[in-house]
Structure formats: structure tokens, C-alpha cells
Amino acid sequence: MAQLHVLSMKATSVIRPENYQSFSLFLQDELVQRCKKNPGYSLRSFARTLQINHSSLSRLLSGQRKASEKMQRSLVARLGHDPETIRNFKDESARNFRALEKSRDFNQMNRDSFAVISDWYHYAILELTLVATFRSEAKWIAKALGISVAEANAAVDRLIRLGMLERTPAGQLKNASGNNTNIEGEIRDAAKRKMQTQILELALKALDEVAIDRRNQTSMTMAINSKRLPEAIEMISKFRRKLSAFLEQDPDRDEVYQLSVSLFPTTNLNGDEK
After folding, report:
1. CB-based contact 109:183 (threshold 8 Å)
2. Which of 8, 32, 29, 7 is nearest to 18 (CA)?
3. Are 6 and 182 a contacting pair, CB within 8 Å?
4. What pairs with residue 263 in β-bridges?
5. Are the C-beta atoms of 145 and 152 separated by less than 8 Å?
6. What is the full DSSP assignment across 195-213?
7. How far apart are the first and last CA of the chain?
8. How would you classify residue 129: left for phi > 0, otherwise alpha for psi between -120 and 50, otherwise beta?
């Protein structure tokens, strides 16, 4: 069961080159955002947008190839950003470079942490590593979770940077989520709302696409005394932990499931805003 510890920080959701540790991370995030908006968008589509060969783009995204300053300026401009922002990647002086790297590291951790909390498939990848048939390949992960290869690649890299995944010398991915990072306050709340929205959308999809013997989606409507809500919420929390312990006790795991329990008012008789 993937869990997160809490570390206070702020995050920015605007994609700008200067917010990233490297140019490859900037390109990677751009591709992921485009795939989210258009499921049919691919690496080849991104390469056409950037007007470069898709194999060259693949090497840039993986960090196997370094882009020159001229290429960075050109690609940033083709993505609609100010080409001058790439100056933040230049090593103008050792002192300024160290300060810039520290700032970039912090910004990147903010972005990574926000993404982990707000996109459901990060937790699913952590759990997927515990499944007996797991394969440490982006294409296999993408197919298993129904996400794009770009999203799978970016998520794995992000989880590794945060210390939640480890890659063994043999290239296998290992769940290391005992040392997790999180964000708190309004940023965390916004991220959690985003993820809960995604989970509800997944539940609706399962209602249409998953056989009844492989799911359980029920509801109950009841008139209650709202003073008992704190106790009810604690009972739900205990139930989640107990059910998780029961289902995870078998080492021979073959699927990743999502449990979503909702308890909310359908009336507003006490005059509170909903």
C-alpha cells in the first residue's frame, strides 16, 4: 500500500524551461501534458511539432543526447516559449550555477511531488511492481494501466527522482516508497482534488468496461445525525486499512485495484454551502 510522508513546500504548475533541472525534463513534461490533452498524441507527433527526427527526440528525452544552446532556443520557440529562458541552463559562473541548481532542484521536487499526488497512476506503478508478472518496461506499464508510454516514462523517472522507486543494476524497478515526499497546505489539497476526480472517472469507466464479478460498486442512502460523522470517518479509515492488509497478505499478487469509499451529503438542511 503506497503511502506518503509530508514535507512542506510550494509548487508551480506552469511549464517553463527555467523551472526544470534539465532541458530533457522540460521536454518530457511538455510531451506528457500534450498526451493528457490528446490520448492519440505520440512521440512522433511531438517530433513533428518540434521539426526534428523522432529518434533524436527520444534520445533528448532520455538524456542520452544533450541539446546545444542553439537547439534549445529553437525548440523552446517552436513550443511557444520565450527562447531567452534557456539562458537559465548556462553555467555563467560556478557560484551562480550552484545557486541556480539548488533552486532548480527545489522547483523540480515541487513539480514531481505535485504530479505524484495528483496523478493516480504514480501510486498504481508503485503497487504494480509488487505484482508477480511485473515488467520494468515503459510500454508494458503503459499497457497495463491504460496510459501513454510518455506518461509511463515520465512517471517512472519522477518516482526515481523522489526516491520512491529504485532501479537495480540489472535494470529492474523496485518499490522504495518508504522514503516518500509530499506537499502540504493548499497545494496538496489541490493535488488531492485532482487525483480524486481522476479516481471517480476511473470508477465510471470500470462501471461500463469491467465485468461485474471483478468489481463491486454499490451505494447506500441514509438519514443520519451529522454529529456522528467524525466517528464514521474514523471507521471508514480503519476499514480501508483492514481491507488493504487482508488483500495484500498474499505474496502472489496479480492485479492492482483501487478502493474508493465516498460518504457525502446529498442534502443541505443545515444551511451550509456545498
Report:
1. no
2. 29
3. yes
4. none
5. yes
6. HHHHHHHHHHHHHHHS-GG
7. 32
8. alpha
**The one-letter amino acid at 104:** R
Contact 185, 11 (CB under 8 A): no
Dig out the grid coordinates for 126 from the structure. 508503485
pLDDT tens for the chain, 274 residues long, are 554 433 333 333 455 665 666 788 888 888 888 887 887 888 889 999 999 998 889 888 887 888 888 888 888 888 887 776 666 554 433 444 444 444 445 555 666 777 677 788 998 899 999 998 999 999 999 999 988 898 999 899 889 888 889 999 999 999 988 645 445 555 567 777 788 888 888 888 888 888 888 888 888 888 889 999 999 999 999 999 999 999 999 989 999 999 988 877 766 666 655 4
**DSSP designation for 40:** T
CA distances from 227 to 7, 219, 220, 266 (A): 32, 21, 19, 16
Tell me the HSE value of 269 on the side-chain side, using a 13 A CA sphere. Answer: 7
CB 130 within 8 A of CB 253: yes
Residue matched to cell numbers 474508493: 260
